[in-house]
Amino acid sequence: VSCFFFFMLGYWDIHRLAHTIYLLLEYTETPYQEWQCKARPAPNFNQSNWTNEKEKLGLDFPNLNAIMCYIAHKPNMCGETEAEELHVDMLENHLMDLCVVFIMLCYKPDFEKLKTECLEQLPGKLWQLLCFLGSELWFVDDKLTLIFVDFLAYDMLDQHHMFALEKNSAYMHLGCFMKIPVSWCTALWRNKKE
């Protein structure tokens, strides 16, 4: 008797953190099915098609970070030593802080003013990551092995690249991952489909 297990990954039809999970699932060759949830249109942007389903899943706290960590633990992509695990935790939380600030920015009414400030601060934030990376290929491990935070870091950098170079359409050929909005339909910046 064989048992076939696969993930069902449901998320809004936007990029955000689920994209990192898709990258991890593909990299680890983990079977999965995708369920994209669409928000109902204006004026109320009803979210009940997801919130009603979420309540039926029997999960205490459906959370993208927890899903990412779960997938990464299976192939040992969370660090091998205590020092590596601490670096993973530190970088994961730093990257999540950057992601949350970026997400919040995209929904602010004074987005255009804040966008200018964000673009002015971006080089300093990128410099911090560059210093942390040093001369290594990956963020945590010098053994040429990927850790899940590498996916999170490069996906976050990709979103910031799209944000800073929105007009550069030549960059948007991302293989099997189509260009999708980064933010929900109520955001002032989303990297909309053409």
UniProtKB/TrEMBL annotation:
Q: Write the record's keywords in alphabetical order, separated by commas.
A: Transferase
The source's superkingdom equals Eukaryota
Annotated EC: 2.5.1.18
The UniProt record lists the Glutathione S-transferase C-terminal domain at 96-178
The GO annotation for biological process reads: glutathione metabolic process
InterPro entries this protein is in? Glutathione-S-Trfase_C_sf, GST_C, GST_superfamily, Thioredoxin-like_sf
* MF (Gene Ontology): glutathione transferase activity
Q: Which family does it belong to?
A: Belongs to the GST superfamily. Mu family.
**Under what name is this protein listed?**
glutathione transferase
Q: Which organism is it from?
A: Coturnix japonica
